[in-house]
Amino acid sequence: MSNGWLYDFTDDQTIANLENISKRCPNIKCLHMSHSVIDVNCFQVLFRLFPGLECLHLKSNYVKEVPNQTPLEVWQSIGKVLAPAVIHLSIDPHYEYRMKECHLKALIQPLQYLEELRVGTHFDREVVGHFISFLPKRCKVFYSLGRELLLESLGHLMRNQSQSLTHLSFFTNSLRTTEALTKIGHNFKNLVKLKINLSFNEIILTSSSPISELKQLLEFSVDLNTFSDSHVDDGLIWCIKDGLPSVKVLEVSRACLSTRAFNAINYCLPQLNKLLLKTIEIQCVCDSIEGRDRTERYNCTACKQRCWQSVANFGQLRELHCLSYYFRSDR
User: Fold this and answer.
1) What is the pLDDT of residues 100-141, one digit of tens each?
2) Which of 37, 71, 82, 176 is deepest in the core (most CB within 10 A)?
3) CATH of 1-165, one of 3.40.50.300, 3.80.10.10, 3.40.630.30, 3.50.50.60
């Protein structure tokens, strides 16, 4: 279609196509709408055609203007239409049409049955997370890709969702890492899945990890993309050093590791049965490392062999994912 939009859900032909789909697939529960034109009426039609619809993913869409209505009023109308049915909502606005804080509040406030909210990055700069105060207390899942939302969001979640929240994902700011994780460890005792982006801060290495307070945690994912050669293993070991006895799934991304980290995983996560390693560099820790260039430091056959030997000692491991490779144990 014109203007670069993939679909126009306000167009009569698109509505007719949806009606045809609903006759053959009336039980659709989840719908992704991306790079499309949308309005209040299209949601009314969707819920009429698909009465079981409860999950919406809205990404990079253009919300059509309504004569004599402000954008705030349009979002309020959309929220009211979504309210009776939507349980799972994911929203990431188009970068040219960034939502404001008041728009998010208007959309979320009516959603009394919402259990899962995922928000992206393309929001107006003044969005700091106040909209989260309107999440219903039943909300169990919250994922945020926006660094700016971190502490303000946690404050609202602590007041309203400290007991109900089971899944939490955040990208952290390097200056607030310790503060944010302390809030998470102290206030969300029922978390079963935690995903964080841990920006490096040497101060954290002298403190205990509050993640160990999450006694029901089953899945832990950490992205260590800012760690440098001089801090091999430090970030991961800090996270797990006090023990994560209930964790069964560990995902480590963009990290520089040595045998020290793999030994720590084996010791600190006794129930681990699934390990995911994404974009991992194995650094040489041999005595002869001095003077080697980066290529040599990360291509030491002996150190790689020792790391694999450490993994072989993970007695409970059933699945191992390494970059694009996948291995499964049938034991």
Assistant:
1) 888 889 999 999 999 999 887 767 666 667 788 888 888 999
2) 82
3) 3.80.10.10
